[in-house]
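Exercise: predict the structure of this protein bound to S-adenosylmethionine.
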Amino acid sequence: MSETKAIATPNKTKEILKKYGFSFKKSLGQNFLIDVNTLKNIIHHAGIDEKTGAIEIGPGMGALTEQLAIHSNKVVAFEIDQRLVPILKETLGAYQNVDIVNQDILEADIMQVMKDHFSPGQDVKIVANLPYYITTPILMKLLMDKLPVSSITVMIQKEVAERMAAVPNTKSYGSLSIAVQYYTEARVVMTVPKTVFMPQPNVDSSVLHLELREKPPVIIDDEAFFFELVQASFAQRRKTLRNNLVRFFADDIEKEKMEQLMQDINIDGTRRGESLTIEEFASLANQFFPHTKRNNN
Ligand code: SAM
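Solution:
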């Protein structure tokens, strides 16, 4: 398909808006991409080829879906807004390898949809320009569902992308960085100006690439407790690790015992949570866990 006919141009987008009397719903995070080069860069960073199965979240009018249809083997796109279904039927009419699922991604049984639409063993990647109001819930669902996908490449708010990919001792590093990096290797691969969207969002955007790990980078005795401890460690960023931990786990472990447990693994309680690596959080969680009420053994 020639670029002049692509969906992702200001003129084509305006033409579709007019034809269908479509009005953007801010509440659904509807900021559509109107720049083909940006889309091609996303496809490139996602590592899509003609064998790849692609899952898209929020196709909108089909700007990204079209590029996925051209470059991948098959696309399944989840769109919550019923009004977009007839529009997508027209804009993507030329492509036989696209299926639209009119469903809220947070409610969807993605595993089942994958079984229904892709061949067993096919490499599947998730690619999306996400609705920013639910970026974190969507990504956490995708990761916690442990879907058999190899990577996730998403346009999201710049600041959130930086938090997800952040390393220790930076302002952006926090519990979200640990949660995402427990499941993936995270990299910010592009920063995108507001001008490539219609309407333009109020925030800057980046593309985050998440390569899913085959197994977590650390061995954790109890995942729920690990994430609880990480949250607690960042609860008040200016406080020391010791103070944050005492606040959350004083009912489980006496203060002196806590100090001893930290010393035993060479973690200084006067450090701040933001200086700990995921490996240090893992050994801290494994060290504390046998002494908590959550451990029934
Ligand atoms: N992919 C299109 C593009 O790049 O031009 C549109 C992206 S727009 C930022 C986000 C899209 O997600 C909108 O089409 C919106 O209706 C859809 N959406 C919002 N919430 C959703 C949800 N919970 N499940 C599925 N789609 C959703």
